[in-house]
Amino acid sequence: MAGKGDTFENDVLKLIFNATAIANMADNAASSPLTNLYVSLHTADPGDAGNQTTSETAYTGYVRVAVARTAGGWTVTGNSVSPVANIDFAACTASPGAAITHWAVGTASSSTGKLLYAGTVTPNITMATSVIPRLTTASTVTED
User: Fold this and answer.
1) 135 closest CA partner among 55, 70, 75
2) Spatial separation of the C-alpha atoms in residues 104 and 44, rounded to whole Å
């Protein structure tokens, strides 16, 4: 078998996104855990070596969105994770920049931050003034 078993993949996603301990292995409450994860938008794939600022959009009005590390913030099932509710970003007020092609989840509300997972935005979001980028509950990242 290459990689992780399916049950453990779900356990890892639940630990990261729902703050659910992995019995006898990882206790989320043992440290000062993050209570939110921060979703960012990107104009290209940030890649495995990237951080939260790699190819991050810079349209006027953009800020990352905090999503709670709970089952109320994220759905984990079938080795994938998706937001429980749509994630709406701030409207573009000027200088829209390039299309949004990727989204990512990280640890920081601003600055470099640790990139945890990234996925594609389908269809891409063409930016223009007054556009409010939205990730739907169909936006997923997979642990496999």
Assistant:
1) 75
2) 11
pTM score > 0.70 for this model? yes
C-beta of residue 125 within 8 angstroms of C-beta of residue 99: yes
CA distances from 123 to 77, 119, 134 (A): 23, 12, 11
* Tens of pLDDT, residue by residue, the chain (144 residues): 467 898 999 999 999 999 999 998 988 777 788 999 999 999 999 999 999 999 999 999 999 999 999 999 999 999 999 999 999 999 999 999 999 999 999 999 999 999 999 999 999 999 999 999 999 999 999 887
Q: Which residues pair with 105 in a beta bridge?
A: 39, 117
